[in-house]
Amino acid sequence: MVHIAVVGSGVGGLTAAIALQARGFAVDVYDQARSLDEIGAGVSLGGNGMRVLDALGLGAAVRNVSSRLQRIQFHHWRTGEIFYEHPMGDWYERRFGGPFLGIHRADFHQVLLSAYGGTPLLNRRCAAVSASGELSFADGSTATADVVVGADGLRSVVRGPDEPVFSAMSCYRGLTPVDKVPGGETFGLTFFLGPNRHLVAYPVRGGEFINFVAYVPDPEWTLESWSARSDPAEAVAAFEGWTDTVTTMLANAGEVGRWALYDREPLRDWSTDRTTLLGDAAHPMLPHAGQGTNQALEDAAALAACLARPDLTTAEALRRYENVRKARTRQIQLGARANAACFQLPDGPPAEARNARLQSLPDTVAWIHEYDIYAALES
What we know:
Elements: E1 3-7, H1 11-22, E2 26-30, E3 42-45, H2 47-55, H3 59-64, E4 66-68, E5 71-76, E6 82-87, H4 89-96, E7 101-104, H5 105-115, E8 126-129, E9 134-137, E10 142-144, E11 147-150, E12 165-177, E13 189-194, E14 197-204, E15 209-217, E16 229-230, H6 232-238, H7 244-251, E17 256-263, E18 275-277, H8 292-307, H9 314-343, H10 349-357, H11 361-364, H12 366-369, H13 373-378
Parallel strand pairs: 1-2, 1-11, 5-13, 11-18
Antiparallel strand pairs: 3-7, 4-7, 5-6, 8-9, 9-10, 12-15, 12-17, 13-14, 14-15, 16-17
């Protein structure tokens, strides 16, 4: 039996492990964490990502702990006025073949942990991977595998030494009880756009909480960490003068995380004969397209399908996986960079032109959301 080592037990790593096990591979998952704590806030799942979860038999469990988003709205930063709105809910599902969901990362992670037929091996910080498939860990231990999958995030050891690209932007993230957010019970995928800043919010945990991500320019804050903390008052101050909906939501968050936003330049090659990359390790992207999680899910499905092909050697399968995924993830990665500037325009003609372009938003993003990784693999 082919033995595969997955480095990283996040969403991408665990989904890859589940998909590989379903294809008959033996999989071990390694993670540097000492314990799998409830960290992070919300993530969004689109039709393209849900197609993978449904195929793996996880769709119902994910839906049970998610909020199905009924609309998308764009608001003016100061007045709160809606300048673009479109239904999601049933409309989105009919158009793109699956729901658009908001889910707490910890809830999603628990679904994946329950589905993975084993326990991630913790406190195993990968220090190096050899060309022969040997993993060396910081504690001096080693392991071997036929294939090593780097799902170890932006600063991937498996990927190698190229430097992350700092966006000169950071974000505040948190959860606010829905009854502490003015109008929160009506939120779907909700944007507040303004000069040099923007905020995205949506419900999670069945609408009990509103998850928010508030983006600000900040070349001084360079810490990129799920566990870094800030003060809600600091987030409120950063959005002084914005609509009360925004400042009240920020002020009533139980706690606020803050981290700097990085990505990396697209890679020429992801794979060697026995190693490859997945998710943020392969194509870390800024969050302004809402696709980081969904692209990791697509990666996981593609990797498992390619490795399972009996007509390909391992090296050929890894190259096939890379070729299927590279152009699409590169396009989304670079598009996410461009969206930040688009979302943070000052009032006036540039913002008015953007608002006019939003009228065609469903068609503009259709190529992302309607994508079927399984059909792509067949073609």
